[in-house]
Amino acid sequence: MNTHDQDETVTTFLYNDTWYDIDHLGICSPNQAGTYALYCNDIQIAEFDHEPYPEDADLTFDTNLVAAAVRALNEA
User: Fold this and answer.
1) Cβ distance 59 to 42 under 8 Å?
2) 8, 75, 67: which is closest to 37 by C-alpha?
3) How do the domains of the chain map onto residue ranges?
4) pLDDT tens-digit series, residues 12-50
5) What pTM, to 2 d.p., does this model score?
6) What phi-psi label fits residue 11: left (phi over 0), alpha (psi between -120 and 50 degrees) or beta?
7) What is the mean pLDDT of residues 42-67?
8) What is the distance between the alpha carbons of residues 58 and 41, in angstroms, rounded to a whole number?
9) Where are the beta strands (DSSP E) in the chain?
10) Residues with Cβ < 8 Å from 11, sequence gap 6 or more?
11) Distance, C-alpha 64 to centroid of its chain
């Protein structure tokens, strides 16, 4: 599993009483634009693709991104 890089975290959400972080791997590695990792307690549990966002986009309440993360979680 990959190391959780706090600089890449774009949002955090609560699902089934557990907090998850979504990292956009393209922030630190532009060749991974559109690739996201899902973490729980700093452990990567899933990776998924979703449309890339501009670097300065506010994804705090992006329901589409969270829905994609939940799908990835349920498939993990």
Assistant:
1) no
2) 8
3) 6-75
4) 999 999 999 999 888 788 888 889 999 999 999 999 999
5) 0.84
6) beta
7) 85
8) 23
9) 9-15, 18-24, 35-40, 43-49
10) 21, 22, 59, 60, 61, 62, 65, 66
11) 12
Query: Containing H/E element for 75?
Result: helix 63-75
Count how many residues are written for the chain: 76
- Rounded Cα gap, residues 45 and 1, in angstroms: 8
Unique residue bearing structure tokens 């899902």 = 38
Kindly state the tokens that stand for 10.
Answer: 């774009």
**Residue in 20, 5, 4, 7 with CA at minimum distance from that of residue 69:** 20
Ramachandran sector of residue 41 (left: φ over 0; alpha: ψ -120 to 50; beta: rest): left
* 3-class SS of residue 9: strand
